[in-house]
Amino acid sequence: MDAATAILLTIVTAATPLLLAALGELVTERSGVLNLGVEGMMVMGAVAGFGAGLLSGNPYLGILAAILAGMAMALLFGFLTLTLVTNQVATGLSLTLLGLGLSGLLGESFVGEPGVRLPKWLGIDILIPVSFILVAAVSYVLFRTKIGLVIRAVGDSHASAHALGYRVILVRYACVLFGGACSGLAGGYLSLAYTPQWVENMTAGRGWIALALVVFSSWLPWRVVVGAYLFGAVYILAYTVQTFALGIPSQLLLSLPYIATILALVLISASQRLTRSNAPACLGQPFVPDR
Amino acid sequence: MTDNGGKNHLLEALHIVKTFGSLRANDDVSLFVRPSEIHALLGENGAGKSTLVKIIYGALQPTAGELRWHGAPVTIASPAAARKLGIGMVFQHFSLFEALSVAENIALALPGAFDIAALSQKISRISKEYGLPLEPSAIVGDLSVGERQRIEIIRCLLQEPKLLIMDEPTAVLTPQEADQLFLVLERLAKEGCSILYISHRLEEVKRLCQSATILRQGKVVACVDPRQETAASLARLMVGGDIHVVRAKAKSQSGKPRLVLDKVALKQDGPFGVSLRDISLAVAGGEVVAIAGVAGNGQSELFDAISGEKLLAREEALVIDGKPCGRRGITERRKMGAAFVPEERLGHGAVPAFRLSENVILTRYASDKNLTKSGTIGRDAALGVSERVIKSFDVRKGKPDPEARALSGGNLQKFVVGRELDRNPAVLIVNQPTWGVDAGAAATIRQALVDLARGGAAVLVISQDLDEIFEIADRIAVISRGQLSEAYPASDLTAEKIGLLMAGEHEVKEERHAARA
Q: Quick one: closest CA in A to B84, which residue?
């Protein structure tokens, strides 16, 4: 394996959790729900995946547990925002806080334990091809099938969708759960493949970057790939430059991905064409059906 | 004329009751629709028409009562169930998805699989067959109101309905578009599709419908053949008293011009806007001048130019009471005595989530000293104004100082117009004063506009409703493709003449003049 391939592979590895989480959130947002709890769902996925893998010795069971943990968090979010109609922004933020705290508590005994590692497949993590299959599938479903059309319709005008007889809340639950599953999977990838161990708060803000990526992609699945790999590259750049000891403070280098996020969002909002075209019109708006 | 055995009816709604809390929106309402007839459902806003059709369309469940379809009792649990039976509905506020294409919008209403290419062909075929031009791949957000309605109609037609419910379909259409719609509806009825036609435009109902059920305050007050009635007798049934006819006009004395537009020009804003070209007009104190025209010919641009939402290039292009103010903002113009009522009452004319008294402050904080004192809001003064407006315009509301969005369209429009009239402005510009407003409220608003003018103010009304224009205007100008015709005395004009001007006749004439010169 030459150096270029090695670097590319590290970039891909760093980008995959971002890609998975952003893809899930993209589907959630396409249905009109803003779930700011990606970070919380991810970190719960990481701890559950690590724990299940450690206790059973089977990394695939770990991945399953990670997905289920993300979905459990998403279900809680869905129940609060869709059934009880709480504010989506505040609920999403508390979901993140809850996930960070709860995962720290659950993972206390896992700290320092050597975890199990997800086996590689032809030298790459199996979740990397899976992430691409997911992107293709989401893109196909969203734009080529009736289910996807209904999801976009619900996100564009829940009142109209309701008037046509679609079950807005049900569609949104499904999309929120899909988002949770993807975030959980992204977390599981971190603790079972990226760095197979458990460290408290190991998602380190990736959930937030995933959220920004959705806006960056202007809600189009294939653009999420571009965004995720760009950010993966920035991550790797930050770590690589550190090793050269150029006298740049490491804190500054490590904050590069976040600075890049802000820059990307500023550039995107400067172009009305990019932001307006695909943003779901009902994003973040609660829906209460008629009496 | 009403029930005759039930066998001949396509749809029967028997003794329908629907309550919302303490409000009885429908109180023992019965409705009978025969096959192939166009049946009108008449009533003022809030009479319970929408509630009844929502029940028929399965969007609401009745508290009591029964629906029968072809004589057999049915429960319509959802809109999907209604569509399965063969009931289609075109909503007043379209249930369309702006970000999606025409074909995608229609696909959403159809059960089962999803083949955009085949569906697009089907749409093109139907749209040609019925004379409803529509491009399947167009994005709905880019389409005009009339085109959006066509989507809804074609969406219903694709399901080959037995009963088509139309909720105030012409409220948003130009006279020409409405005529075209009537042809489609008549043809559908001939082909065996019954139509339940909700409206409060009486002339339309007389022309189109074979029978009419009239609702008032949730109850059926009559079931008549509208062709045998006069507009006045229908109106009496609807309102429960005589409709106030705008008072015969006193001959307006020619006052001094209080609003003068001098060669107003404004470049179009965005790909769907209209550029204003060379618009000149003078409105004298004491007169009502109306601007007629088909929607989308520059009316909203002209309103923005006069109200100050868009500033003009030259200060002299707009003169209010002798003072040039083309470069001054809205607040400045209000301080000079001008008042503005935009077309869209909710969102533009009033903040939906604000109470009425707070909405009073929004347009009057600068011009009315009592409403704000050194930066703080005078709540009592605002409440006082709001109560005065509510009283003099008979604004009906649920609680003392409701949020603007809690009011029905007609009541909010009365409030928004009343709020400006209460200032006793020197110059008033109104865009579509009675759009979607019931007959009673419309009469109140029109009378108030005429009264204001007779009191010495200059009133400029932009409207698409020709009946309204002839009822109140002293002079009429026509806007077409961003250009304004000369303002002719109303008595010199007929609807036909205005139609020609709408089609841009004056432009042709002017071009000929130019060619000769």
A: A165
Residue B251 confidence (pLDDT): 54
d(CA B277, CA B265): 5
Task: Label each residue of B29-72 as H, E or C.
Answer: EEEEECCCCEEEEECCCCCCHHHHHHHHCCCCCCCEEEEEECCE
Looking at per-residue pLDDT, the higher value among B234 and B327 belongs to: B327
**pLDDT of B476-517, one tens digit each?**
999 988 899 999 998 888 877 887 787 665 554 544 454 444
| Chain A nearest-CA residue for B104 | A149
**pLDDT tens readout for residues A204-238:** 899 999 999 998 888 999 999 999 998 899 888 88
Give yes or no on whether B11-239 and B246-337+460-517 have one common fold: yes
Chain B residues whose CB is inside 8 A of the A159 CB are 95
Closest residue by Cα to residue B69 from B11, B8, B7: B11
Q: Which residue among A145, A156, A281 sits closest to B114, beta carbon to beta carbon?
A: A145
Does residue A98 contact residue A40 with C-beta atoms inside 8 Å? Answer: yes
Which numeric CATH code is attached to B11-239?
Answer: 3.40.50.300
Q: Which residues contact A67 (CB under 8 A, 6 or more apart)?
A: A45, A181, A184, A185, A188
CB contact under 8 A, B95 and A152: no
Which chain A positions have a beta carbon within 8 Å of B270's beta carbon? none
Q: Which two tokens stand for residue B300?
A: 């909203």
Domain boundaries, chain B: 11-239, 246-337+460-517
The whole-number pLDDT of residue B517 equals 43
The single-letter code of the amino acid at B353 is A
Q: Which residue of A has its CA nearest to B19?
A: A291
Q: Which residues of A touch B78 (CB under 8 A)?
A: 165
Cβ–Cβ gap A165/B83 under 8 Å:
yes
Separation CA B99–CA B245 (nearest Å): 44
Show the domains of chain A with their CATH numbers.
3-278 (1.10.3470.10)
* Side-chain-side CA neighbours of residue A190 (13 Å): 32
CB contact, 8 Å: B65 with chain A? no
Interval B340-368 mean pLDDT: 87
Quote the pLDDT of residue B511: 47
Q: What is the pLDDT of residues B252-296, one digit of tens each?
A: 566 789 999 999 998 877 655 678 999 999 999 989 999 988 777
- CA of B494 vs chain A CAs: smallest distance (Å): 41
DSSP state of B346: B
CA distance A144 to chain B (A): 8
Joined together, the tokens standing for residue A112 give 């320092």
**Interface touch A163/B59, C-beta < 8 Å:** yes
CB B351 within 8 A of CB B404: yes
Q: How far apart are CA B135 and CA A162, in angstroms?
A: 25
Six-digit token string for B237: 């049934």
Q: Assign domain B246-337+460-517 to its CATH architecture.
A: 3-Layer(aba) Sandwich (3.40)
Contact B477, B486 (CB under 8 A): yes
Which has the closest alpha carbon to B274: B506, B448, B484?
B484
Helix (H) or strand (E) holding B189: helix B175-190
Among chain B residues, CA nearest to A145: B114
Q: Is B303 on the interface with A (CB under 8 A)?
A: no
Contact list, A280 vs chain B (CB under 8 Å): 99
State the Cα–Cα distance between residues B168 and B94, nearest whole angstrom: 11
- Nearest residue, CB atoms, B60 vs list A146, A278, A290: A290
What amino acid is encoded at B341 in this protein?
V
Chain B, nearest residue to A278 by Cα? B99
How do beta strands B38-42 and B211-216 pair? parallel
Residue with tokens 């109902």: B205
